[in-house]
Design brief:
By secondary structure, the chain is of the alpha/beta class. The protein has helices at residues 2-29, 71-79, 92-97, 127-130, 134-145, and strands at residues 59-62, 87-90, 105-108, 120-123. It has a 4-stranded parallel β-sheet with strand order 2-1-3-4. Residues 5-10 have low confidence and may be disordered.
Length: 147
């Protein structure tokens, strides 16, 4: 009985493969080719990130997890009267895949990013490092004041 069931399943599977192959040949004859990824790097990692809603955002903060809640970040935002609700956080990968309009101010703690015309780019070391580097804090402060 088990042998008949396995034979039946195998024959169904083979029949489905033959039908798929015939459909592919039919489409190929019509000039419709198989779908191919032309830029596989775009679909590597991070394709599951949703696009950010930046409509209410005044500052885009490119950082690692947890940096937005750090006391130094909160103090910097408070010093420049930027509400947390007007700040959007994202990873570097999310930023690179973001489409549409960006806010005027973009702050990255993940290294330098490509300049974008019409936007103010601020860069600093990661927040955990920034705490211990007075020169880097001063530079970030000057960048914020220059806005």
């Amino acid at each position: 009985m088990l042998f008949r069931w396995c034979y039946y399943c195998a024959s169904l599977f083979t029949h489905e493969l033959i039908m798929l192959h015939q459909k592919a040949l039919y489409l190929q004859e019509m000039g419709i080719t198989h779908w191919q990824v032309r830029k596989p790097a775009l679909f590597a990692q991070g394709t599951g990130f949703p696009l950010l809603d930046l409509s209410e955002c005044k500052l885009l903060f490119i950082c690692t997890e947890g940096e937005f809640e750090h006391p130094l970040t909160v103090a910097i935002l408070k010093a420049f009267n930027i509400k947390k609700s007007h700040v959007c956080c994202c990873s570097l990968e999310q930023f690179e895949n973001q489409q549409g309009n960006l806010p005027d101010i973009i702050w990255s703690t993940l290294g330098k990013i490509k300049p974008i015309s019409g936007h103010h780019l601020l860069t600093s070391p990661p927040i955990a490092t920034l705490i211990h580097q007075p020169k880097a804090k001063k530079q970030l402060w000057e960048e914020f004041c220059a806005l």
